[in-house]
Amino acid sequence: MIAAYADYFERYGEQVSDNPTQGNKVGGLSTIEEKSLGCIQKGGRCAVTEVLPYGGRATKNGLVLVSGPGNDLTGVTGQIAAGAVLTVFTTGRGTPCGFAGPTFRLSSNSRLAQKKRGWIDFDAGVLLAQASDEALQGFTRQLYDAVLDTCNGKYHTRNEENGYYQMGILRDGVTL
């Protein structure tokens, strides 16, 4: 998957190292490797069940990877095209767009959650202030319940409430 994406960049005369977005760089990520480590962590301990090309449709349950750009709008559109029914979108800077499907926005810091109440569905920044195992378990349960409530239609995400439904389609050529 990585080699194929590197070849794709090379065909268009671009460097894979340019893949972290400007927002990633401002936020402190300087390489594609650093960005990838964050993605790996978000997968938890699940085994990867399928790897799809951009625009491919998932045929298996479990953790499915979509090969595509690091750009938020284009990347999430590829996940939704693959069959994702809910995107849990972590953000530390606050990408203001909604996506083509329900997007549960998880803020990594409370300052952003307070500043962008109309965009953020869940403030994960409170975890930084409460470091005990008990607080972590309670927080994990709250997040799990909030995601399930969203999947079950009991909670509508901010992008649904606001009517924000954008998408970005990967074009022939490199999207940074």
Automatic annotation (TrEMBL):
<keyword id="KW-0456">Lyase</keyword>
<feature type="domain" description="D-galactarate/Altronate dehydratase C-terminal">
    <location>
        <begin position="1"/>
        <end position="174"/>
    </location>
</feature>
<protein>
    <submittedName>
        <fullName>Altronate dehydratase</fullName>
        <ecNumber>4.2.1.7</ecNumber>
    </submittedName>
</protein>
<dbReference type="InterPro" id="IPR052172">
    <property type="entry name" value="UxaA_altronate/galactarate_dh"/>
</dbReference>
<dbReference type="GO" id="GO:0019698">
    <property type="term" value="P:D-galacturonate catabolic process"/>
</dbReference>
<dbReference type="InterPro" id="IPR048332">
    <property type="entry name" value="GD_AH_C"/>
</dbReference>
<dbReference type="Pfam" id="PF20629">
    <property type="entry name" value="GD_AH_C"/>
</dbReference>
<dbReference type="GO" id="GO:0008789">
    <property type="term" value="F:altronate dehydratase activity"/>
</dbReference>
